[in-house]
Amino acid sequence: MKKKMLAAVLAGTMVMSLGTNLCWADGEKTKVTMTVWNGDWGDQLDRTMESFNSKHDDIELDITMQSGDYSDFLGTAAATNDWPDIYILTPWTQVQDFAEAGRLQDLSGMDFTEKVYPSALEAATYDGKIYGYPANVEYLGVFYNKQMFKDAGIEEVPKTRDEFEAACEKLEESGVTPIASTFKDSWTLKHMFSVMMSNVVQDDMEGFLDQLNSGEGTFNVDGIDDVFATADVIKAHCGSNMMDCDSTSGYNALANSEAAMLISGEFSQNVVARMDNPPEIGYFALPVSNDAERNKAAVDVGIVYGVSTQTEHMDACKEVIDFLSDASLSDGYIAIVTEKPGSAPASQDFTVSYDSASTNDYLEYANSGNVIPWVYQQYVNGFDVISGDIFQGYMADAADKDEVISELDAAYLEYLDQ
């Protein structure tokens, strides 16, 4: 199974020049190259590079943002065996595949392993060893308007599904739309379905995935009724036109106090932060179960920095990783990439540089270890996308529970064969 997934990841064909000597000495200065995928974090990476280089007379860090498809970049690097010294990967399956293929250095003894949350380290672990620095995490759940909760007489955030439904009813009685919909975009339902499935299979997520990957598993597991019961509560309290609302309209509804709650990730909060007088937004775990102890924050790693086994300057690469994972630096990587509301938090305890109730609420979950990973990041490659499409049918009342489960099972088998 892992060999099939590795083949899919490494099948890129884009022609590009990686250079024949990616790490070299210039006098006594060692150059360490790092490649990352394209995104809107170019300025943050430039500042990270400048900060590192200003602190190191003997090492020059050169960060390149890959402009094309990142899978193509990985495929070309694998085909030529010509890698940058450090590069980023997605957690879990991709890290495991690259470690199994002998492309990543074992970083198990490094200092960051004592700083990073144990749950985050798992996302960069293969065969008991740690093969990357899981730098940032993201969290999914319920973001809520504290004033609207107070006005509706809701004194505590709901900790069970029944309490969640009761809160929705109180909000409606006060004349408020309880939940902002984003369900025109199926990717938002990929996230929501994953949060609910993670809750259900948290006691043996590995066993659940092993069964699926063997071709003998099913989504019709014990507790699956909690998934659909939670979806029913959400459907009943999103307003009459919920399938017409995309992520942008949902984010704006929370930011403009047009709805009291939004089921999303921390990335949605940069919209709230841009308001002239933003409402105070808190965060709590989506209460899928009526057992409050099972309702944990859905938190997982977004970025893993790996060091290539082809590097000729392992000591210099370790210094880069040490710098990236140093939360004490006011001008370090962690400070730079977490400086704004909506930023993905560090994978370890860190000082939040802005006032955010939702981030503080998240940190209470994280620092107490009351978190669960996203099961969708461990599915067979590609299935995560179709899972959102399939669950969209249930939210739109186009398919019932049994039909959705059958579609999920059949689609998973198809992706196993690809």
From TrEMBL:
Residues 1-25 form the signal peptide. This is Extracellular solute-binding protein. It comes from Blautia faecis. Belongs to the bacterial solute-binding protein 1 family. The keyword Cytoplasm does not apply. The lineage of its organism: Bacteria, Bacillati, Bacillota, Clostridia, Lachnospirales. It holds the Pfam family SBP_bac_1. InterPro entries: Bact_solute-bd_prot1, SBP, SBP_1_CS. The keyword Signal applies. Keywords: Cell membrane, Lipoprotein, Membrane, Palmitate, Signal, Transport.
